[in-house]
Structures are given as structure tokens and as C-alpha cells.
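Dear colleague,

As promised, here are the two records you asked about, laid out in our usual form so they can be pasted straight into your sheet.

NAME FIELD: protein one
SEQUENCE, THEN STRUCTURE:
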Amino acid sequence: MSAYADISSDILIVGGGMVGATLGIALSGAGLKVTLADRLEAKADTAKSYDGRASAIANGSVNILKGIGVWPYLEVNASPIWDIRVADGHPLRGVSPLFLHYDHSDVGECPFGFIIENRSVREALRTVASDCKSLKLVDSANVVSVKRGSFGVSAETDTGMRLNASLLIAADGRGSQIRNGAGIKTRVKMYDQKSIVCNVRHERDHAGTAVELFLPGGPFAMLPMTEHRCNVVWTERIDLVDHYMALTEEKFLKELSQRFGGWLGKIDLVSPRHLYPLGMLHAERYTSQRLAIVGDAAHSIHPIAGQGLNLGLRDVAALAELIVDTARLGGDVGSNNILARYERWRRFDNFVLITVTDSLNRLFSNDIGPLRLSRDMGLAIVDKLPLMKKFLMRHAMGQVGKLPRLVRGDKL
């Protein structure tokens, strides 16, 4: 793309990650002209060394990906979650005999969701986006200025490229420059924890079982992947993570095995170790004049429930539905009415999960005796309450609340 070229479209999305790309594909598939601008070079975020993370894609989010034609490119790399086990534990004392077990058969035949490497998701989105006739991909596009007016938006990159649209959507992550430039404040809380993320291969079949142990330093998740692998998300106290990251592979595997137990047999490290700070973020509002913010730009949560990407995809489904319905009636896709409806629809759902994950982390990330006993009893009690369990399982599947058409499995 040459410098100083103008690109005009109905929608300008800044941020080409998983949320931004999904929204771009959804809108262009409904006939809108979309520009998707990302600061990274093409395919930079699909390299195996990029971040090592995997995501739990809930059943409702799978419906979104199916509805926009992305799922066929992902299915081969997706490992279903058939069972979820949640228990209290300790690296030295082992796992509590009291636990909470979710069985997919209690709520139907579908899995709770799938575990997929983020790299695979981005590759699939890039493949589909490249074939969308009304979607313009602009890579290496660092937006340095934005002008929003009554009738449209104009953004300029550091190369002098001008991007014009009726509506600007910020999908540029928790440090969103677009959100900050619009003067939208955020509530931020950084946790005294970091997450060590890696992949291991094991000798026994995980049978599609996801396990989350609540250890004193934070949750330790074992997430089932393809090829006899698990994605490990080990949340630990911030003053200890450097020690674990510096261990030799042999000693690091010994620490992992102590937390895994013997249910998967011998484990081997099959990826680099990655380290991520953890925090909670919530924007004070999701919209401004001709601007909507989605995904991590609007909200970022603790990974304790594995729902961060799913919240962003539900933002996508809701906003896309409102925009497409308005466009089909010949209305203004950047109107205040659309933006207000989007904020009302999504804010409560996001706020509830932000509050729940923050509370769970505070409740479980400690080794206080009375609290530990209360936690164990609470998990065991919930495990014996079928109606409550079914509600929680449906929530984990993304099937609770006012659901957009794509989440329900309908066409946009």
C-alpha cells in the first residue's frame, strides 16, 4: 500500500487480532465495506513463537465462528472439552478429595467448548479474511490520529495513509490507543500474580477433561489440546515466577509434575515458557461519538474462568447484529442509537464476569485454613445441586442471557 492513499469504507476496525478480525469478517460477510487496520506486519502474530497461549472457545463462541465461515478452518486443531473438574489443592499436600465435576452429558450432546491455540485461531481468521471481497486488510498500520465528527471518522497512520468510515471500532487491546485518545477512562487492577504458559505432551489420554486446581499462589489449569497435549496456565505469586521461569527444563518439569499429579502419566515440555502479567480492566463506557470499543479494549479479566476471549466474541456478535440490522434498513451505522444499544446490551454481562472472576481469585488464591475448608465444602455442595450445576454449565457454554443471533447459531 503506497503512502498517502485514502481508503473509505462503512466501518473502520483498528486492531486485527482475534476479536477485531472476527468482527471484520462478520460485517463484510453481511455486505458492509470494512477496513481492518492492524499495527503488526502480516502473519506476525501467527508465528509459533508469538505468544504460546491457547483459548477456551465456548459453545456459543463456536456458533459465532461457524456462522461466519471460520470454523471449518479451525476444527482440525480444536480439542473438545467434555468434562471439567475443579478442586482445591496444594503442591505438597496434593488435591482435596472434595471437588466440582461438570459432565457435558448433563446439558446435552455438545462439548462445553474447545481448546485451540491462539495462533491457529489467528491463522484461520486471516485465511477467511483474505477471501472477503468487501474487507480491506491493512497491515503495519499504526494509527497516530483520529478525527470523529457528526458525519464520519477519519484516521491517519504514521505513513500518511488516511482511513475514512462512518464508524470506528477499537479492537486494539487493553492498552488501546483509540480508547485512550477518545478520553475514555478505565478502572484497572493489577494482580500480585503472573501466569506461566506452556504446552506439555503426556503419555495418557486426557479424554477431553479440563482441570483447574486452586493452589495457594493462584489457579493451575490443565487444558486439553490435540496430539496428547495440554496447555498449562500456571498462575503464581509475582515474587516466585522469576524463580520458576529460570529453572532448567528438567527442574521445571518436576515442578509441573508435582502439580499435575499422575493422571496423565509422564509429561514433556513441548513449547517455550511464556510469562504474562495479570490484571483486570473495565472501561467506564464502551462508546463515544462514532466510536465503539470491543474485546480487551473494553474489558480484561483474570484467566481463572477462561472466558476472556468469549466475552470479546459476544461483543462482536451483539455489535455486528445491531450494525447489520441498521444497514439493511438504510440507517446510519454510526448513529448514537446503535452505540447506546450496544453499550446497554454488553456492559452488564461483562461487569458480572469481571466481578465474579475477581472475587474467585481473591477467595481461592490463598492457603488460609478456614477459607480452604469453606471452599472445599462449597465445591462439594454445588456438585450435589443439579439445577445450579446445569445453570453454571450453560453459563460456561455461553448460553445464558440475551444472546445475539450468531451465538444462538442463527445467521447474522
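NAME FIELD: protein two
SEQUENCE, THEN STRUCTURE:
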Amino acid sequence: MAGNVREWVWNDADGEALTLGGSWSDYMDNNRYATTAHRMQRFEVNGVRLMKTLSAPIPDQLKAPIHLAYTESSFQLPASDEAFRIMSSQFIQARSAVLDTKVEIVQEAALWIAEEATVQYADKSSAMFYVMRPKRLAGKVQPIIYGPAQNCCNSKRPNRNALENIAFAEYVVNSGRALVVPIWAGSYERFTPIDLDPKAMADRQRRAAVDWQQDLARALDYLATRADIDVDRAGYFGFSRGASHIAITLAMEPRIKAAVLLSGGIPMGELPHPMIDIVNYAPRIRMPLLMINGRFDHIYPYKQSQQRLFALLGTPADKKRHIAYETGHFAYPPNSTARDATDWFDKYLGASR
């Protein structure tokens, strides 16, 4: 049951304690996932829900241990170089000329300003980006492209709801950088309902991969036109969905110089189309990359998902790092996470000015 806290349950899962449901601080999609932990962990997001049996005792089978199973399709090998060359040819797209750009300040806080940038192209398409930039710096700032969590894509919502992402990554802006949130394909007003037909779903995932690559390229193209942005020192910060699905774009965009993936990994569900499977892209991701995860994350399990993605990354061993906190999918120690991410960008993009 979703509520104020995740509930400890009687059952163990693979030898560890188990909580179910979502807490007050989890985003909506987390409510349906299991999370394991040590019995003596005392997180503010974990609690209990009391019950009383009305008649017969609880059957023993309801209290039996639970095995958290994952599909075998999640353990396939990456595409060969030849297969990837053929697959990546689908990302080749013509760039349409920019006809008009409109920038509007839509939110302001003590330390930052949020702008909404709308770009119109000659082919009658458009793109929208939200740029949260610090007030205290007068010179050029480094842009950090943000790949959001699944809550961006559960339903059709106004594009300005993308400003909710500042709550998850405000420390990026406070470190003197600009947080840039494209309206990615499938998110906010670009939401498309789920199609249960397998062929339609596979085609949708194929097109999503191509669209995300274009979204990232257009964001960097736009930032290159701004006098206040140092696009030569661009980074990427992905969270959950943005650290797994959308992160495939890192293999296709050489202008990203460093990346941080928070709560990401290899998806454990079966993916109908290889175009959206990060297993095929990981060996081609070569920029300095930091992974931050929860040791008890069962959306992206530690061994099967996190460690495997880390091992597959094409980044040299001395330029990649994996930090696993004793938490689940979402709740991290905020000060430590902020330090980890900003120190990584400081090291590989240079300290913000």
C-alpha cells in the first residue's frame, strides 16, 4: 500500500528484509516496487502498518520467503561492432535550420533563475528546453543536461512541470552550473500512451531512441548559441530512467565530456527492441562516468544490473567509478550525493567559475 512510509513485511526476500509500497519522498512509480534492506536499518522512509486477523491464523505459505526473479533476456551480450554500426545508422538525421528562438523567465529562486526556451525549426518542428542557471556567476557556465526519472512520462502534463526536476538536482545549479532539462520524447506534453500491441511497442521504442538522440543534439546546438553557456564543457546527469534508457544517447554524442548516472542500470524487464537496450550502447560510452546507486535497489539490482552495466562501460577503468550507498532505489544521503556528483564534474569539466 502506498502511504507515508514503505512497510516492513513479514517475508524475507533472498535472505534480506523486505519493504513494500512507496514513502512520502518516493516518486509515484516507486510504489509498485520491492526494496530490501538490513533488518536494523532505521530510515525515515521505512515503517510499519499494523493488522489484526479476524478469524483463522495466517497460512504459513503467506509468510514464506520471496524470490525476486529477473528475466533472462536482461543478460544478453552487447551487439557486435558490425551490428551496432548498422543499428546506429538509424540515428543519422538532417538538421533543420532554426527559424526563431523565444526565451522566457518562468521561475526564480534566491540562487537561480529558470528559463523556458522554445526553438522553432524550418521543417515546422519545435523543441523546448528549461535552463536553470545560477545568479551569482556572470561569466559562462557549464551546462549539465538532465535525463529525468519515470515520473516525467507517466501521463500527459504541462511542459512547465519539468521544473520539478530542480528538486532532485538543485545542487548542480548551486555548484555554479546550468541544469538543462529538454522536453524529451515521451515526456510531459510529448507523452504518448502505452500501446499493448508488441509490434507497436517495439516500433515506439525504436523511434524513441532516435528521438532522444535528436533531443540531446538539439539541446547542445541551442546551448552553443548562448553567450552565457560554455558548451565545450557539457555534462550529463541522468536519474533512474534518465540513467538507463535515455543514457543510451551518451554513446552517440561526443560533445558530452562527463556523466553522472544516479539510480541507473540495466533494466531487468524484457525489452522488445535492441535500439533502446543500454547493453548495446554501454561498450560505446567512453567519457568519464560516475554511477551512484543503492545497494538494496531492486529496480536495478546491485549485481545483475548495476555491476554489470559498470563492467560493460567502455570508459577506461581509471575514469569510471561506482558508489553504492546502503539504500534502495531513491533515498540517498543528500549531502554525500551532492558532493559525489559535483566533485565528479569539477574533476572532469573543471571547477565552475
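A couple of things worth noting about protein two: The chain has a mean pLDDT of 90. DSSP finds five helices and 13 strands in the chain.

Best,
R.
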